[in-house]
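re: ur question from earlier - yeah i can do the single chain one, its not a big deal. heres the input i used so u can compare w yours
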Amino acid sequence: MSNKLRDVISRIIQQEHATETGRVTHAKLKNITAGLNTDDPLYKEIEKHPELVKFFGKNSETEIPVAGYINGRFVSRRIDRLVIDHENKLVYILDYKTDIDKSTYHEDYIQQINEYVELLRGIYPQYDIQAFILWLNDFSLEKV
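and the output i got, formated as tokens:
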């Protein structure tokens, strides 16, 4: 088998693995809520990062669909985690990413999250909207 074909097959296998890992991890995170999943290894990892706990509290919601028009184009998205703090007029968006190389699709992810923000501005015009990426390979939090 040629090296070129081997490289192509290797990339396909890596992409399929990344996609499956992302799907499984998203499904697990969807069901995690602070205080309810304290024995879950994923929640134990979240607890190590205090800045993440608010995204997994009882007021957090998962897999929230949002849709609308941005610059005349219809956009439909699903937000991984959403926390709305009505008292302080804050909206927090958290999007999970499983990439090991954070730079590969970074610009695409920023655009995706900016679309979330734009769509939510139409729903919560008086709220401050803050968006973050949770990089699951190292549980780092990036503010967008």
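Residues 3-143 form a domain with the Lambda Exonuclease; Chain A fold (CATH 3.90.320.10). not sure if urs matches, ping me
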